[in-house]
Amino acid sequence: MPNDDVAVFTTVLQALEDVGILSDVVIIGGWAQHLYRRYFHDPPELSAMRTVDIDILFRRPPAIRPLGSLDETLKAAGFEREISGDGSTKFTSREAEVEFLIPDKGRGDTGPYQIRELSIGAQSLRHLDMLTVDTIEVRYGRHLVKVPDPIRFSSTSC
After folding, report:
1. What pLDDT, on the 0 to 100 scale, is given for residue 151?
2. Average pLDDT in the 51-62 region?
3. What does the pLDDT read at residue 50?
């Protein structure tokens, strides 16, 4: 079914909502493009292609107060917890991969940034901090989802 990936994305958004952190994260990568298509009413110049990974960006430091266990919620949604080669946490299913990212600061992190409230390690990457500034919210079904300001997103995609 061609929209299986959309159903999985919606499931991940619901899991983030159930844990109480959806309003505290920014969706980046290929799924941000999908959300921009919604926001801008499906313009032809925005690609409809999506990736299988769902990139979830936290601000640094994360200001979150989870209401439940991300691990349990994503496992109930069909995902399995994995540790990437760099030590960061991701959740995978047959259809998708959920990856956690955080802006790198200063001299750079030597390993994943530990988000203790969620018991995960987020991959630290440079130049992501600009994507957490001036976000916009896109209505996606019953969810309000934050994505980077389109100007900032396009400048990091070059």
Report:
1. 82
2. 92
3. 66
Element of type H or E holding 154 = helix 150-156
pLDDT digits (tens, 9 = 90+) for 27-47: 999 899 899 988 998 877 776
End-to-end CA distance of the chain: 32
Rounded CA gap, 66 and 77, in Å? 17
Exposed, middle or buried: residue 79 (CB in 10 Å: 0-12, 13-18, 19+)? buried
Please choose, from the candidates 86, 82, 129, 90, the residue with its C-alpha nearest in 3D space to the C-alpha of residue 111.
86
Q: Rg of the chain's alpha carbons, rounded to an integer?
A: 15
The domain segmentation of the chain, as residue ranges, is 4-156
Q: pTM value?
A: 0.90
Length of the chain (residues): 158
- So what CATH class is 4-156? alpha beta
Residue 1 pLDDT: 36
C-alpha distance from residue 70 to each of 8, 51, 115, 133 (Å): 16, 22, 11, 25
